[in-house]
Structure formats: structure tokens, C-alpha cells
Write a structure and sequence with these properties.
It contains six helices and eleven strands. The chain is of the alpha+beta class. The protein has one domain. It is globular and about 50 Å long.
Length: about 250
Amino acid sequence: MHRRRVLAGAAALLLPAGCSASRPEVAVVPSLPPSTYAWFTGGSGLGGVYVLTWIEGLSPAEVVTRAAGRRLGQRRRPAAGWSTLPGTRKNETVLAVTRAHGWALMVEESVTAVGAADDTIGKLSKGTRLVAYAHNDRAADRFVLASDGTILVDFDPGYPPDRAGAQPDLLADEMRAVGLNPTLAEPTRAQPEPATLALTERVTGVPLTRALLRDSTYLAAAVASTAGTAGTAGTAGTGQQRKTGGY
């Protein structure tokens, strides 16, 4: 693959008729334009390697438990990033989880990309829905929408026409709205990173702000760096391979 608040009454339901009634509805809300995230991509964000994983309805403690994390306590983000947090052991990655308006936000600053691994996605999305965005300046990115253990949409924002998952076209209109045009006939109009953050906001209804990212108190946990294998597509756990550069 090539590299590269909420108006509830107006929310558009995207799951087509016939989908499992047990699966949470996937709703979208209006978002701020991608340009709103210029602060993040301009040097005030997380740098060149990170994973942002949003899990609806779970507490930070529930997320850490599902991810089999070893708790490191309540922390604020270190000035040098989560990867520098004291208390980790060899071959461990730090996951930091905070609350965000009905969602848990899990932040990782590691090339391991545990939060974008298929088995992690499967565990964290069980009985709920999840949005994950893995970014690496030197590898392909990955955006995933999952529900109840199943990956619905899976693509590299650097090349949005190439999508996988159980319902790869589910977010086509929302992708188009933020400039990640989903077909080869529609050239992408936006930079992938801010556009993907705007797409995430449309699905979760929660904007990523400086205050949320920098000032929140997080439950930090260490997990084995080998936990999971990112870079597969379709239903979580199927083992179908996709090209993802370093992920």
C-alpha cells in the first residue's frame, strides 16, 4: 500500500440494513475541518510515530485490563513522550489511557504500534466500537474502524482508495467530507494526517485538543512489545496481510 459537540439528532447512521442488531450503531457527527489540526501536525502533537486508539464506553482501567497491561500508575505525559516513562522493562511498550467524553483515548508513542495490532483491536472492541489511527513518518499509516471484534474499515490514509474490512465503503462519504477521497476518480484534497484526525472526530464526536492530549491524567501501563501483529486487514484475527511499511 502506498505511503505516504455532538448533535445526536442529526447524526447519520451508517450501518446498512441487515447488519447484526448486536453490533453498536456507527454514527457520524459534523467535525471541524482538517485545517483545525494544524497545531498537531505543526509540532505540538506527538511527533512522527504514534497510535491513537479510541474505545467507546470503556474506562481506562477496563482498557488496560483488556490489553493485558502492567499498571504504571496515574501520570501526565512526560515532556519527552510516553516512550520515556520510567518503570518499563526490556521489550515493553507504554500505553497511556484517559477519559474523553464517553470514550477512552489510548495513546502510544512506539513503532511497535500495539494499539493498531489486529488482536489488540479485537480485544478492545469487543462489545463496543473502536477507532485506531497509527502514524509513522517512515512507514505506511493505518486507520481502522472496528465493532464488536470485527474490523469494518481498514485503510492507509496516504492511499484511501485501497480499503479492506468487512464493510470497506462504510465511511466513504465521511472520507470524502474531510478530503480523503475514496476512489481513484477523486484526487485526495487534504493532507492525510490532519484529514484522518478530522475523520476520527466525525466518528467519535470527540475532537483531539491540546488540553486533552497534554493536560489529561492518564492511566499508564506497560505491555509486551510483541503483543499483537499490526498490518492485517478485514475481520480481526483472519490473518489477511496488507502492506504497511514498518507496521
